Amino acid sequence: MDLTKEEARKLLKQMYEIRFFEDKIMELLAQNVIDGGSHLYAGEEAVAVGSCAAIEPEDWIASTHRGHGHAIAKGGKINELMAEIFGKATGCCKGKGGSLHLADPSTRNLGATGIVGANIPVAVGAALALKKDKSRNVVLCFFGDGAINQGVFHESMNMAAIWKLPVVFICENNLYGMSGAVSRVTTTNDLYTRSCAYGIPGEAVDGMDVLAVRDSVRRAVERARNGEGPTLIECKTYRYYGHSRSDPRVYRTREEEKEWQAKDPILRFRGKVISDGILTESECDGIQAEAKQEVEDAVRFAMNSPWPKPEEVTQDLFA
After folding, report:
1. Domains of the chain: which residue ranges?
2. Is the pLDDT assigned to residue 31 strictly greater than 80?
3. Which of helix, strand or coil describes residue 241?
4. Are the C-beta atoms of 19 and 270 separated by less than 8 Å?
């Protein structure tokens, strides 16, 4: 396996951080400790972690409404991310963005958006700026299967292709939009094949395998850095929770859920690094406990943090 001990530790810890973070958010929502919309990433950890492992800290990402995992994988501080969801002044957006609009310029995270597909042209604009500046940096653009039928997806793909922009389009295909299956809204379940319309490479990858995602994104990033333009990568994955807090998931069977949970990305990777002798069972247990404690500490940090001051409501607004 092309993996050092330190790399294995980082990948496993980030996936655990995302899983515990999302489980805790669901718990807090159920207790009405936090309010508002929150779309959870549990089950899809391998996509964010594998993708961000393929880029450098100076590279950029554009996120989605299901963006907690992207923010953590890009190096966001757990305390600040949790405080932001609480709406506290210590959050990465000073409590003004919340779950749906997480942004973190310090880690080059261009931010999430509550509008399906709205981050795609943002990523293309950032990639255009990088090209004009003759930068070697790239942009990873995450979006779900529902966004692939939006008009801005096609416009953005076309522009990125003709100008050979340094952007990697990553479609997180978790099989369902808010309540409809992909098979009901597209004529193919292989969404990556849409790349051929724009003359760019397209590839499908097992989105429950963090190393498969990392390797696929690495190849696409190398193309982008070399001036060869964008790539469309479809990561086939699965969200464990509903679309949002109010979703009872009546559109899919519990048998299907169990089938996908048997492919759990964390357990698969953990088992692999143990069997290959990269990490021991005890070391993995330690990483798991460390990640869980960080999330618990983040909750305490958020709960003890101050609310934004009312007189600051008009600050940080741009028009």
Report:
1. 5-301
2. yes
3. coil
4. no
Tell me which fold the domain 5-301 belongs to.
Rossmann fold (3.40.50)
From residue 300, give the alpha-carbon distance in Å to each of 86, 94, 188, 217, 257: 11, 17, 46, 36, 32
Q: What is the DSSP annotation of 95-160?
A: TSSTGGG--BGGGTB----SSTTTHHHHHHHHHHHHHHTT----EEEEEEGGGGGSHHHHHHHHHH
Distance, CA of 181 to CA of 49 (rounded, Å) = 25
Q: Is-contact 207 235, C-beta < 8 A?
A: yes
Query: How many residues are recorded in the chain?
Result: 319
Alpha carbon of 260 to those of 35, 206, 263, 265: distances in Å? Answer: 29, 12, 5, 10
| C-alpha of 190 from chain center | 20
Instruction: For residue 2, name the pLDDT band (cuts at 50, 70, 90).
Output: confident
Neighbours of 315 (CB within 10 A): 10
Half-sphere exposure of 30 (CA within 13 A, CB side): 7
- For the entire predicted model, the pTM comes to 0.96
